[in-house]
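Subject: Interface between my chains keeps coming out wrong

I've been trying for a while to get a sensible model of this assembly. When I model each chain on its own everything looks fine, but I need the whole thing in one frame so I can look at the contacts. Pasting all components below, labels as-is. Any help appreciated, I'm running out of ideas.
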Amino acid sequence: MSLIKIENVSKTYVGGEGLVEVLKNINLEIEEGQFLALLGPSGSGKSTLLSILGALNPPTSGQVLIDGISIYDLDSERRADFRHEYIGFVFQQYQLIPYLTALENVMLPLAISKRSDKEQREMAQTVLEKVGLGQKSMRLPNQLSGGEQNRVAIARAIVNEPALIFADEPTGSLDSKTAKEILDLFQALNKDGLTIIMVTHNVENLAWVSRSISIRDGQLCAAT
Amino acid sequence: MRLTHISIQNLRRRKSRTFLMMFSIIIGIASSTFLFITTQAMEKDVADKLDQYGSNILILPDSGEALTFGGITVGVTGQAEELNMSMVEQMQTIKNKENLATISPKLLADAEINGQKVLLVGVDFEKELRLKKWWKIEGLNFGQLPEKNEIVVGSDVARILGLTLGKSVDVKGQSFLIKGITQPTGSVEDDQAIFIDLKTLQGIENKPNSLSMIEAAAFCYTCPIEEMTKQLREKLPGTKVTALRATLESRDQTVKKFSMFSIATSIILLITSALVVAISMISSVRERTRDIGVLGAIGFRKRHILQTIFLEVTLVSFVGGLAGYLLGMGLAVAYGPTIAKMAITLPWQPILGVYATLGAVLISVLASVYPAWKAAKLDPIEALRYF
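Reply #2:
Try treating it as a single job with all components included. I did that and got this:
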């Protein structure tokens, strides 16, 4: 059974020039354990599709099933619970909370769990070590490089042991060496069993993924 | 990590905003505390002073022939129905008994001294002197009371009859030592009478339980005097209970003015503080739109966001409220009497600290309802697009 199933998903926005159809009747299935790249140029609708998959952005029509759950049939509070339990996000600009240390940023998803403070710290420290930042856990985001901030964001995404990771242009603002390190890290996490869906406009990144889908003008146009 | 930690870290990061918010709460609470304490003391001081200008309630028999006592009409002893000592106890059972400051029972009698008819007023000296704080008595030291065989003579009586301190006077066959002479008060009933121990006069007149009138001072800055006179009339049937309106109305007006000024100023100050808190929180939420979006995206529910915002406000307002109380109370204790030109000591009121702190928290939380609600309502995807 597919982990993710998208049926006839469309998304329309009201723009300055009237209605803009960003996604047009998308159908897609993603198996558990895949490392999928959503490839496409700017404005193609790939980030919108990612946000719809991430239970953040209801489609105008169609259905999204994750682990058999129709996520947009849940009310907003239950959808928040669903995101907490199933999904880890790595945002485009990492979106770390600037007044929290790396360790505290990683602990954020655990702050609303029933785990003790000690357990939260241990879990966060373990994942920071896993992404290679065990020694920099007490630094604030502005004391870390872009690549390191990206690693903290990845650590925050995986600390809660979700089934899915959604990454939006995770290498977009990194140099090629750092980008390679991040992709290696994603690949290692995928090998550990995590399903990863990554939005990218860089075809070079396809070397790390197990499957890729191109999206253009709101429609899926090629798959490998 | 708990939500409290996120709130504290945010406050620490935004030091100037946190300080501004706390400062506004400190100013609001300190000013309100100062005004409250000072006004409260002023009210008490005014009430005490007004008490000195005469008793507020006069209780007389409801029938009988009239005798003028300093412009006040009273029943003549021996000819009219009289009051009795049990009425004093009954007065202390009315609903507003706490407002009765001093009750001074009196027996009036006439006597002839050196061929002149004079008025004898039998009083409980301790209560009478507490009631007539403005009396200056030559021959009596502060706190000293005349003995049973001693009398205090009104200034006019002493002058007309040529009575002097230390002299003995024969009153109805008993000899009394003149222990004190009142200095002129301008009050006929004080200057034209001889004051004698109540029980002694009751013995002389052979009326051990009788009274001609009862004077009472009332602390009426917290009670309606009309209500008290009504309660007394009900308790003491067959008597005439009169409130001395002029004094009371003047007192009421003065006290009301102080209270209104204090309340109005405090409300304005607290509204200003609440506005500063609200504006600071609205601005804080706007600045943190992206952070709030992240929290929503990773699974924080609306109530978690609300909790984070309210925790911040509670922490700041708790510290601000407590500091404001300490500052306001400290200023009131140190400078209140000087500013209000009162010779009194203002005591620290710890319970007011509890109310001030809780009030600061309540006002600040109420002021933050709108920004907190806005934050909780933020759509994560919109919030993440904000920057």
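Reply #3:
Confirming on my end. Residues 128 and 165 of chain A are 16 Å apart (CA to CA).
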